[in-house]
Amino acid sequence: MSERAVRTGSAKENELKPEIERHYPVDTNRQTIFGHSLGGLFVLTALFTKPCAFQTYIAGSPSIYWNERSLLAMERAFEAQLTGDRPVRLQMTIGELENAAGSFDGFRTEAMASRLSALGSSRLSVEFKEFRDESHISVLPVLVSQGIRFAMKNPL
């Protein structure tokens, strides 16, 4: 994602969260951000640039290749961003058939989840799931279902 997108995301968070809190009861200790495809890329960008903004991040079939894979540079700088007093949970998912389609983002997603798990940080819990017989589009219903279950688990 571009620098502009990162700034826009921060601005939206600063506008959107207070607006939601004005209208609905919100547990500020259990907030989740969820996205699929480019939305999954946005979720990872949010995690890598502002990991304390949410407690749970769900990135489904993230478009890691986007913008010449600039997300990978953010990932390399991420460990230094893991500060604060609350642990963060991340779920990364793909459909099994995504790699067969030739995008190889599924391989990249699994590899990134593995690298993030290898950080061994007590501040970050990573779960990777591959949904059998699902493609980039057909994965959406199961991703939503499993994502909600992941978000509703007891926090760390």
From TrEMBL:
One of its GO terms (molecular function) is hydrolase activity, acting on ester bonds. Keywords: Hydrolase. Gene3D superfamilies: alpha/beta hydrolase (3.40.50.1820). InterPro entries: AB_hydrolase_fold (IPR029058), Esterase-like (IPR000801), Siderophore_Hydrolase_D (IPR052558). Coiled coil: none annotated. Belongs to the esterase D family. This is Alpha/beta hydrolase. It comes from Paenibacillus arenilitoris.
